[in-house]
């Protein structure tokens, strides 16, 4: 799984590099406008992912850097994060009825 995520991140980085180059040195039309449109769409979707999965990022150190990685790589970065530690079980009060049936 790590290899797939690494390859996906490399492809995403190449995409963002193309979008950045296109901003300073536009490609031939219609490719320049397609890259603008795709770049804006991906940026919008990654912003939506950031809003939806902000709770998963909350426990990780260096939160601004984690948010930047989500904006660059989206779900690929979220899948590579370790799972959050499970919350400790909260003791439930024992009801008298349950005790009598035991």
UniProtKB/TrEMBL annotation:
Protein's name according to its UniProt entry: DUF1145 domain-containing protein
Record-annotated membrane-spanning stretches: 36-55
PANTHER family with a match to the protein in the record: INNER MEMBRANE PROTEIN, INNER MEMBRANE PROTEIN-RELATED
Keywords assigned: Membrane, Transmembrane, Transmembrane helix
Domain of life, source organism: Bacteria
Record Pfam families: DUF1145 (PF06611)
């Amino acid at each position: 799984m790590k290899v797939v995520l690494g390859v996906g991140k490399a492809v995403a980085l190449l995409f963002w590099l193309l979008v950045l180059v296109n901003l300073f040195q536009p490609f031939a039309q219609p490719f320049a406008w397609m890259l603008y449109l795709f770049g804006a769409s991906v940026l919008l979707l990654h912003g939506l992912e950031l809003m939806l999965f902000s709770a998963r990022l909350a426990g990780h150190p260096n939160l601004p850097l984690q948010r930047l990685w989500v904006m660059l790589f989206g779900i690929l970065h979220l899948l590579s994060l370790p799972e959050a530690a499970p919350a400790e079980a909260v003791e439930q009060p024992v009801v008298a009825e349950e005790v009598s049936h035991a």
